[in-house]
Amino acid sequence: MSKIPPFDLSEQYKVIGDEINTAVLAVLASGRYIGGASVEGFEQQFAAYIGTLECVACNSGTDALYLALRALNIKPGDEVITTPFTFIATAEVISAVGAMPVFVDIEAGTFNLDLGQVEAAITERTRVILPVHLFGQPVDMTRLMAIAQSHSLTVVEDCAQAVGAEWAEQKVGSIGHIGCFSFYPTKNLGACGDGGAVTTHDPTIAATIRLLRDHGRRAGGYYHEAIGVNSRLDAIQAAILQIKLRYLDTWNQQRRAVADRYRHLLQHIPGIVLPQEPAGGKGVWNQYTLRILGAASHSLEPTESRRDQVRQQLQAEGVSSMIYYPLPLHQQPIYAVPDQHPGQLPIAEQAATEVLSLPMFPELAPDEQERVAYSLKDCLA
Ligand SMILES: *Cc1c(COP(=O)(O)O)cnc(C)c1O
């Protein structure tokens, strides 16, 4: 029997390959490979899609976050409140500008920042709250913005996994002061290489980010007003992203259908907790991440959880699954303080031992999902 991968980008290329090839060849023939019409066109279309005045494209989601913090002048001595249950880039950029990430525990249900614990983490050094719309499920932005406003804090949304997701009928990336997106190939809107973008309603922030992404200069000259970086988006990637943006809503709709089918197939299996879309929001299912309940098993390695056993058994049956994320950021060697005890951020720590992400991509077929469900039932029996 054929293997079921965690994601499959070749299926998408089969459908839009001709369009992509034509667009890429046109860029090659144009002789304009950095910036130019395809980058500007994409920036305008993406701003319109998200619902912001401005979009500045850059080289990755990590750079989008970094440029956002630089534009806000976040510096040593500042604190940024964020989640420990995310990809390293979210916290890495806080460290990269010399500020301190302050990790607040997550909610068990959504894996997103627990907004009930944010206020207690605010100090006189706090400048920014940096929520992550993890796995494509939106954070309650109404509540988060109210907290931020009452403490005069800026909100930078990490939308890397959530392009097209909505809270209260507004797209994430248009609700906070700045939205940061990644076009890494496995994100819902993926380039054929690296790419990223910053969205904002604030023209001053957008102008600063434009400056910083190109060596601190205006419009390609040799006068430098700030210490910047090289984080430009390639014209080829912008041309590809323009095409893919037209399909994004359809693909997100297909992901929602895949999630519905999983819920239908898996809802009566004991010992697992299925992911849910938060009430008031619309998720875009970058991942379908469930929990396999059960602490570390006593039968095998002491550190091996029931989840790890299930994952191995699934693999043996030809079903690939992923673990996002096996170690919360506050426990990573770079962030753990000496003699740190387990249980500091207990919900995130437990999630790290229980989460399992099933195959999820728009083209995943119903019969493949049935096989995933059948194998999972088998492993849990
Ligand atoms: C992918 C991702 C990033 C980084 O994006 P890159 O384009 O890979 O640099 C940041 N935050 C989260 C939550 C992500 O999933």
Describe this structure in words.
It is a single chain. The protein is 38% helix and 13% strand. It is built from eleven helices and 13 strands. It has a seven-stranded mixed sheet with strand order 1-9-8-5-4-2-3, sandwiched between helices. It starts with 9 loop residues before the first helix and ends with a helix. Bound molecules: pyridoxal-5'-phosphate (PLP). The site of pyridoxal-5'-phosphate has 15 residues, from α3 and α4.
Characterize this entry briefly.
This protein has 381 residues and is an alpha/beta fold.
Comma- or semicolon-separated keywords:
381 residues; alpha/beta; Aspartate Aminotransferase, domain 2; Aspartate Aminotransferase, domain 1; 2 domains; 3-stranded antiparallel β-sheet; 13 strands; 13% strand; globular
Low-confidence stretches: 297-301
Inertia-based shape: globular
Largest sheet: 7 strands, mixed
CATH architecture of the largest domain: 3-Layer(aba) Sandwich
Question: Pairing-aware structural class of the strands and helices?
Answer: alpha/beta
Order of helices and strands: HHEHEHEHEHEEEEEHHEEEHHEH
What is the domain total for the residues?
A: 2
The strands making up the biggest β-sheet line up spatially as 1-9-8-5-4-2-3
| Secondary structure: number of strands | 13
Computed CA radius of gyration, to the nearest angstrom: 21 Å
Q: Which compounds are bound in this model? A: pyridoxal-5'-phosphate
Q: Regarding CATH, which class of the largest domain?
A: Alpha Beta
Ends apart, CA distance between termini:
22 Å
The whole-number mean of residue pLDDT values reads: 95
Strand portion: 5-15%
User: How many helices?
Assistant: 11
CATH superfamily of the largest domain, by name, is Type I PLP-dependent aspartate aminotransferase-like (Major domain)
The CATH topology annotation of the largest domain reads as Aspartate Aminotransferase, domain 2
- Helix percent reads 25-40%
